[in-house]
């Protein structure tokens, strides 16, 4: 699927999976942030985004269900300056692995959302072109 986002969040209708692989290509982006929300549900979401202004990748687990290893923080960041963002993401019932630009950066984290928190959405605070493919695992 391919689409353009402009100051909006787009939820995939009828997406109801807990284990999957997704590959996203963001390009021609501008504004503040572009990203996606995984394992979304009532009061739960795991957010991964590129902060274009601070040039940082951010994984926010603050609403990812039951928290674990809080002493290490619920938000993880790293510096990134890019013109294109390719994400290969593996999601299952208790973990997320994110490979950025073919492994240039990697995020791995545990999440413990409710069983019915299985939505997904893409967002842009600004604009971006996006191509995404999803496979059930």
* Stretches with pLDDT under 50, minimum 5 residues: none
Proportion of residues in helical segments:
under 10%
Characterize the largest beta sheet: strand count, sense, and whether it forms a barrel: 9 strands, antiparallel
The CATH superfamily label reads Exo-inulinase, domain 1
What is the CATH topology? Answer: Jelly Rolls
Strand content: over 45%
CATH class: Mainly Beta
Q: What's the domain count?
A: 1
User: What is the CA-CA span between the terminal residues?
Assistant: 19 Å
Structural class: mainly beta
Which architecture does the CATH hierarchy give at level 2? Sandwich
List the helices and strands in order. EEEEEEEEE
Structure summarized in a few sentences:
The protein is built from no helices and nine strands.
Provide a descriptive summary of the structure in words.
The chain has 137 residues and is mainly β. The chain has a single domain, classed as Jelly Rolls, CATH 2.60.120. It is 0% helix and 66% strand. It has no helices and 9 strands. It has strands spanning 2-11, 20-41, 44-51, 56-63, 75-79, 84-91, 95-100, 105-110, 119-136.
List the helices and strands and how they pair.
Blueprint: E1 2-11, E2 20-41, E3 44-51, E4 56-63, E5 75-79, E6 84-91, E7 95-100, E8 105-110, E9 119-136
Antiparallel strand pairs: 1-9, 2-3, 2-6, 2-9, 3-4, 4-5, 6-7, 7-8
